[in-house]
Amino acid sequence: MLFGEHGQFLTRLEKQTGTRLVSRGNVLSIAGGDQSAQAARAAILALWDRVKAGMPVGPGEVDAAARLAISADVQTSGNALAQLSDPRAGLKTKRRTITPRSATQARYLEALAESELVFGLGPAGTGKTYLAVAQAVSLLMQGSIERIILSRPAVEAGERLGFLPGDMKEKVDPYLRPLYDALHDMLPGDQVTKRLETGVIEVAPLAFMRGRTLSHAFVILDEAQNTTPMQMKMFLTRLGEGSRMVVTGDVTQIDLPTGQKSGLREALTILRGVEGVSFVEFSDQDVVRHPLVGRIVRAYDAADRAREGA
């Protein structure tokens, strides 16, 4: 269970920690530099604790343990590694318990628990939106909030919204699909449908937020890099009593028309240092999707830097 079928988990750990792992029966030898070997040891012990606690171990958990063990943020990573093998830790939802899979994710979860307004910034695949939805569902189940509101700007990435078939809901649903996917990962399908029908969970384009005051709610704005400054100000000023807001986005993936300023970029400048507002910035090292996604992000970043330096 710990090593994986045909030692596949050990192979993953070797690649991520830069070590050589050799198993003989129940004895495991680690060869590598001091830091690498210590990281591999810490990851293996955390996974072993998880096995002893009766919790499943899969490629995702192996990658998370390695990522946390090699992080420079020792204290945060240590706490997150402990959570990885603690059945009582993490965010509880109906379908799963979510624990951080990188040091930045751990800081993000802390910010989500403590701050009224959180900005989650960084590339695709780092869990910005997924963890925000998990926090929202967890608080809803606890009774700490009365509803969840999920929103995105309906900005086309090369397509034209007006030419899509169907009524308004059918036109905008494809833009909101990632939010639906996250919800279905946290709650059984029938519960998602029921809560959507009763308005306990609302998924709507950003334009539908104008003129509202959102009280006792957990409000998430996804893909915020595609808001205009006016839209961003409008959204942030919807915050009502007993509510929390999360704004997620990647300022390197702006789909606004050329020359149009991003509301997210402006907000990052204006709101730095404002009490009650937290900023958590993810990097390509925090990508928790397929390992190739991280390499793709790094390749594009390198290309952008090369163009800027040309």
Which regions contain 5 or more consecutive residues with pLDDT less than 50? Answer: 156-161
CATH topology of the largest domain: Rossmann fold
Q: What is the first-to-last residue Cα distance?
A: 51 Å
Which percent range fits the helix content?
Answer: 40-55%
Regarding CATH, which class of the largest domain?
Alpha Beta
How many H/I helices?
Answer: 11
For the biggest sheet, the summary is: 6 strands, parallel
Which strand order spans the largest sheet, edge to edge or round the barrel? 7-6-8-9-5-10
Q: Overall pLDDT, averaged?
A: 86
CATH architecture of the largest domain: 3-Layer(aba) Sandwich
- SSE ordering: HEEHHHEEHEHEHHEEHEHEH
Shape: globular
Record field, number of beta strands: 10
What structural class is derived from the secondary structure elements? alpha/beta
CATH superfamily of the largest domain: P-loop containing nucleotide triphosphate hydrolases
Radius of gyration, in angstroms, nearest whole number: 21 Å
Brief rundown of the structure:
With 310 residues, the chain is α/β, with parallel strands linked by helices.
